Amino acid sequence: MWDFGRWLQRKSYPNPKIEFYTPVRGLEDWAPPVPSSRMIPQWYKDMPKNHEENNFLNDANTLPTGNPPEWRTTGETVKTCPGMQDIMTAGYTVPLWGSILIETTEDGEGAASITSSQNSVYSDGESADYMKVSSAEHVGDDFLRHLRGTGFSHEKVMQWKDFQHDTIGKYWDVHSHPQHQYSEMIKTLPENYCKAIIKIVSPWRIKTPPGFSTLILPCPYEFNDGAWETLPGMINTDVYSTFNLFIALKEKGAKYMIPFGEKMCQWIPFPRYQLPHEVRVATAEDHEYDKRLVNAINANWGSSRGYRKVNKIDKAKQGGKCPYS
Does pTM top 0.85 for this prediction? Predict the structure, then answer.
């Protein structure tokens, strides 16, 4: 029945694909979502598969006088870890489509932001309602008091707020939900975090085949300047295409920029179904299965090569291409 269900699912949409679309003209050219395999962290690209000094005489895999480095038989680095490889290359990476300036209050109660696209006319008569967002919601009383406390007059503060309000509907924006909507979560945040959770209104929409959802995750092993982090989420993108980004601000009393092209999140589409599960003690069959996997992986130097070979053999058993061809 399980095999029949998978066959039926494939037949329900003959040529499944994921569609990313936006009402913002030109965005598909200058900041499109791209396969994550093209956005691997630079530190990972620079990391060698093996240490240069890999003649470890105490290693069980070395000859009495050591192994030549070019053999790559010892001193493996995380670059040979298949778990890191697969998560870094899964789905699609979303670069920021503009630049954002953010300022947080000293007490962490509020935050304000402006974008590089303030004067861009992103909406026309057909899409004005579609793209309309509010730029003034995030400018709460706490932040207005902060501005006054830094020497700005009441008139200057209100002039800035009115300007923000008057430009509603002309650009993508950044704001936040009222804190009472996530008040219990605030209690669990680290002491140095700002209490304001920033919402980045995304101009991107996702459409997936029936039965598929999309995970929104922070980009794995990408370490920005430490001032912010993307919060995870999930949307059933086969029925609802609109969702935004939420980021936690990790520093109080700070002023910084998230630049154009910054890797903001990773979108991973996946088939939405619940598998039955079982919790049990390992059987003799389980031990035999594990032994076969370990032996297959250890047939090569480094776990990644053996792991990939096991995957190819499994696909060949299911009617795919021969792994040795």
Answer: no
